[in-house]
Amino acid sequence: MKSNKFILAAALGLAITGAGVAQDQNQGPKHRGRPGAALHARMLQRFDTDGDGKLSDVEKAAAAAQFPKLHNAMLALLDTDGDGQISDAEIAVAKEQFQARLKAMRAQYDTDGDGKLSPEERKAAMEAFLQERPR
Questions:
Q1: CA distance 6 to 23
Q2: pLDDT tens digits along 29-77
Q3: How far apart are CA 104 and CA 64, in angstroms?
Q4: Are 40 and 28 in contact (CB under 8 A)?
Q5: CA distance linking residue 107 with residue 104, whole number of Å
Q6: Cα(55)–Cα(70) distance, rounded to whole angstroms?
Q7: 8 three-state secondary structure
Q8: Could you give the 3-state DSSP secondary structure of residue 68?
Q9: Is 117 exposed, middle or buried (0-12, 13-18, 19+ CB in 10 A)?
């Protein structure tokens, strides 16, 4: 059970962090500036099939159907010894790798060298992130 909670938390953390690197032009005023706003906009973009700006029960069910696939992908990624459990050591390694990747992305896309990502730099980083992530 502990591994399932961690996998979900890690998946959401990765999604939110990846989304946080981006500046999503489709954010509505209701969500702009809030944590997870870019993720919310991407969820709408992906699952709002009728284009009404909100998720219906059917659209929410389609989104929820993606979680088992995400769970299995995260388990495969993090469970390096293949025992079906995520150990504390595997968590520590994953955290270190994630922090290193985040630091590398910041260094790569901070083109003006000010230590922060401007909106343009965030957009470039997010585009690269979306291109390289597995689907």
A1: 27
A2: 454 455 567 777 888 888 899 999 888 999 989 988 988 888 888 888 8
A3: 32
A4: no
A5: 5
A6: 20
A7: helix
A8: helix
A9: buried
For residue 2, give the amino acid letter: K
User: Where do the domains of the chain lie?
Assistant: 2-132
Structure tokens at 1: 């059970």
Number of Cβ atoms within 10 Å of the Cβ of 135: 3
Amino acid at 135: R
Residue that the structure tokens 């470039």 belong to: 124
Q: What is the DSSP letter of 26?
A: T
Of 96 and 14, more confident:
96
Separation of alpha carbons 94 and 109, rounded Å:
22
Per-residue model confidence (pLDDT) at position 1: 44
Q: Where residue 85 falls among pLDDT bands split at 50, 70, 90?
A: confident
Q: From CA 71, how far away is CA 90, in angstroms rounded?
A: 16
